[in-house]
């Protein structure tokens, strides 16, 4: 692909180099500075005296310096690479290093060593090992020590050879790439970047152990530096002088900020987003004026806008997303809060969001027209037209006489799938009959029994129909989710377990067994949460605990007051996955898992936390390669949940990646600040025909990689002999070693309490 500013027409690139040329994402908004700089480089590219090949971009964090460097890679069509400077950087990090190559390199550690040779520092090596083995920082240090010991032991018997591994700087100079040098101002030793001075010349060169490297004519170096931040030093004068072009980078214009935020987050509340952008700019200017060291830039803006899209109140989410990134000092926070109050911008933002909620409230109220009978019952004098009930969906009408919908059945919102979903839909006629008979006392016992029996049958029929529709929807959504995965052609079926009388009794026994431990933990938590409750009443609410007569004259429906806790929405959402493979029959594992699930259910019930529980197995039949048992969806009520969980049992194999992805997809849609997924399993994943070993490991780690970035926390509770395998799959930081199954339920509840307490 060529652009108007390309400087590499006719230059052959390898497949890897083509991939290194940056491609613009949808969220990128091309700015004036970007085009002007690309045009200037292009116009002077063939001028031997005035060619621009060294560029300095200096500005605040989040002002788009790295984005600008990548954009130049796109416009100039040069492969992009970067090096991030650090305080203890030395000349070996600039040029490269001679490192020993021994026989062990060619065996189990060859791939890891090759990656280590490309890193910039010891800290980068430790981070690489941590990611490679999915282990903690402490364990990574031990792994590095073991690797060094192995090399030293081998070196005593194997001749040592040395190989020069060039740095990324040398590689970019030699190959002719666009090189971004990030944050050189943090380097303590001022002489380090002086070593680059000769390479920054048009025909510069570097003298390395393997010979002299001359600068490729296509090489462009972009130095990106923050200004006036703690720990930064002035950019070396000789290096600054070799920059042919410098740009002062500031936050982009408001309209660019809003458009980037819209594309990046998908939020369409442009009016609110514009005010949020103005607040970001105001806070950034205030921080500079008051020597506050934090940053309010585009990153803060993106994450704050995303909370608006998720329905979080912006006046609350501004603290963790913006203000606390600037400072947590009480005096400095008071300065920022006072500026926000004086400017009126935050009040304007709250008014915009509240106005949107009010319009939605009015639309909801206007969507339903009352019948004459209902208007009379509610003492409403204005007559409804034609006695018609109009549903929220304009394509559906429900007549007052028959109570039957014309057209499609009205769909309930996700939040209606809980207790409301379990209620039968009764026609207006039947509802009227029931009320009138109740008013006169229902003196005929035979008539009462008949109506009661009919209502029960109607209720059961409606519940069965709702369950059938829910099961159908869950299966459709699941198959769509796995369409482009390795599970696409494996038969998947989601079951909704049916209850028996014995399971209800067993559920009551299980609840009694775990209740003492749960009550102890819940009591302590409730005391903590109650102490966090505010004694101050917030005025101007649509609903609340006290009526505020002073608000009646406003006519905006906001006539209530209520106490507001620090956070209205649940702070913890839990998804629980139970392995129901055949090996769970051993040593009381399924019993321990079942008891733990009931304990979690009781915990969530007591604290009104969102909860979802799936059990799973594989290879029940040729048609049903993966079976999921939906004991509770997030929208389900907690009614009879212990009885449903009592039906857990060991079955066949286990295809772990399927339930993990299903639960993760549901969990990521929850609004809780902490989203926790716990997998209880006794062994490594194994299902026909070849779902095991590295294939299964990669599948599970792929799920974790996809959803951890969306805020989900994973924990794997290992209750069998394959604990090391599970540890290896999930990583040290996500692994729970369950040694005593009898204490497992209590320990699991205490673990959840820690996440909620935080």
Low-confidence stretches: 377-446, 448-452, 532-536, 564-569
Distance between the termini: 50 Å
Helix content: 40-55%
Strand neighbour order, sheet with most strands: 13-19-18-17-20-21-22
Total helical elements: 25
Strand content: 5-15%
Biggest sheet architecture = 7 strands, mixed
Give the overall pLDDT as a whole number. 77
Number of strands: 22
**Structural class, judged by helices and strands?**
alpha/beta
Q: What Rg, in angstroms, do the CA atoms define?
A: 32 Å
What sort of overall outline do the alpha carbons produce when their principal axes are compared?
globular
How would you describe this protein?
The protein is of the alpha/beta class. Helices cover 45% and strands 15% of the residues. The protein contains 25 helices and 22 strands. The strands form six sheets. It has a seven-stranded mixed β-sheet with strand order 13-19-18-17-20-21-22, sandwiched between helices. Strands 2-5-8-1-9 form a five-stranded parallel β-sheet, sandwiched between helices. Strand 11 and strand 12 form a beta hairpin. Helix 19 (501-531) runs parallel beside helix 25 and helix 22 packs parallel to helix 23 (693-708). The longest helix is centred in the middle third of the chain and has 37 residues, at 445-481. It is globular, with a radius of gyration of 32 Å.
């Amino acid at each position: 692909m060529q652009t108007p500013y390309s400087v590499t027409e006719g230059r052959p690139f390898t497949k890897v180099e083509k991939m290194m040329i940056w491609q613009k994402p949808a969220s990128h908004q091309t700015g004036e500075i970007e085009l002007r700089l690309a045009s200037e480089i292009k116009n002077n590219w063939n001028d031997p005296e005035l060619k621009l090949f060294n560029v300095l971009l200096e500005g605040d964090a989040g002002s788009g310096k790295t984005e600008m460097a990548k954009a130049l890679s796109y416009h100039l069509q040069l492969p992009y690479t970067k090096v991030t400077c650090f305080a203890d950087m030395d000349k070996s990090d600039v040029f490269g290093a001679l490192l020993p190559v021994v026989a062990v390199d060619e065996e189990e550690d060859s791939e890891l060593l090759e990656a280590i040779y490309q890193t910039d520092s010891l800290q980068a090596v430790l981070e690489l090992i941590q990611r490679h083995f999915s282990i903690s920082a402490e364990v990574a240090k031990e792994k590095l020590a073991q690797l060094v010991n192995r090399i030293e032991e081998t070196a005593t018997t194997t001749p040592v050879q040395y190989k020069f591994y060039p740095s990324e700087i040398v590689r970019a100079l030699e190959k002719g790439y666009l090189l971004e040098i990030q944050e050189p101002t943090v380097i303590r030793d001022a002489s380090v970047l002086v070593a680059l001075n000769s390479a920054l010349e048009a025909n510069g060169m570097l003298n390395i152990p393997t010979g002299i490297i001359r600068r490729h004519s296509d090489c462009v170096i972009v130095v990106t530096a923050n200004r006036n931040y703690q720990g930064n030093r002035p950019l070396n004068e000789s290096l600054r002088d070799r920059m042919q072009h410098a740009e002062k980078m500031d936050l982009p214009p408001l309209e660019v900020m809003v458009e980037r935020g819209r594309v990046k987050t998908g939020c369409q509340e442009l009016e609110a987003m514009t005010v949020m952008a103005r607040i970001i700019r105001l806070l950034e200017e205030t921080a500079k004026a008051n020597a506050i060291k934090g940053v309010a830039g585009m990153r803060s803006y993106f994450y704050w806008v995303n909370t608006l899209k998720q329905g979080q109140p912006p006046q609350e989410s501004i603290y963790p997303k913006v203000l606390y990134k600037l400072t947590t000092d009480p005096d400095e926070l008071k300065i920022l809060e006072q500026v926000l109050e004086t400017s009126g911008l935050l009040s304007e933002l709250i008014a915009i969001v509240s106005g949107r909620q009010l319009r939605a409230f009015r639309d909801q109220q206007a969507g339903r027209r009352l019948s004459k009978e209902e208007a009379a019952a509610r003492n409403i004098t204005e007559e409804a037209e034609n006695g018609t009930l109009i549903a929220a969906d304009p394509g559906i009408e429900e007549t007052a006489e028959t109570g039957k919908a014309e057209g499609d059945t009205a769909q309930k919102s996700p939040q209606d799938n809980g207790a409301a979903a379990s209620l039968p839909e009764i026609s207006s006629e039947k509802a009227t009959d029931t009320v009138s008979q109740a008013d006169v006392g229902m003196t005929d016992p035979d008539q009462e029994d008949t109506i009661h029996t009919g209502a029960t049958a109607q209720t059961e029929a409606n519940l069965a129909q709702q369950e059938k529709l829910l099961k159908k929807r869950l299966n459709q959504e699941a198959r769509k989710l796995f369409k482009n995965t390795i599970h696409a052609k494996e038969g998947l079926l989601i079951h909704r377990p049916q209850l028996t009388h014995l399971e209800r009794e067993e559920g009551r026994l299980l609840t009694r067994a775990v209740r003492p431990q749960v009550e102890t933990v819940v009591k302590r938590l409730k005391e903590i949460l109650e102490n966090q409750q505010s004694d101050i009443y917030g005025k101007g609410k649509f609903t609340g605990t006290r009526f505020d007569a002073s608000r009646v004259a406003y006519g905006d429906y906001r006539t209530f007051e209520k106490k507001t806790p620090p956070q209205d929405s649940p702070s913890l959402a839990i998804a629980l996955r139970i392995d129901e493979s055949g090996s769970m029959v051993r040593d009381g594992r399924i019993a321990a898992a079942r008891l733990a699930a009931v304990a979690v259910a009781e915990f969530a019930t007591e604290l009104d936390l969102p909860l979802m529980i799936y059990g799973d197995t594989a290879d029940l039949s040729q048609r049903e390669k993966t079976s999921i048992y939906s004991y509770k969806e997030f929208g389900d009520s907690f009614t009879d949940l212990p009885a449903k969980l009592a039906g857990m049992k060991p079955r066949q194999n286990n295809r772990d990646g399927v339930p993990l992805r299903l639960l993760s997809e549901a969990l990521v849609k929850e609004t809780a600040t902490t989203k926790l997924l716990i997998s209880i399993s006794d062994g490594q994943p194994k299902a026909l025909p070849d779902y095991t070993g590295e294939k299964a490991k990669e599948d599970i780690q792929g799920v974790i990689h996809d959803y951890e970035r969306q805020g989900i926390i994973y924990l794997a509770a290992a209750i069998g002999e394959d604990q090391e395998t599970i540890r290896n799959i999930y990583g040290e930081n996500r692994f729970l070693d369950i040694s005593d199954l009898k204490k497992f339920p209590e320990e699991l509840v205490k673990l959840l309490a820690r996440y909620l307490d935080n």
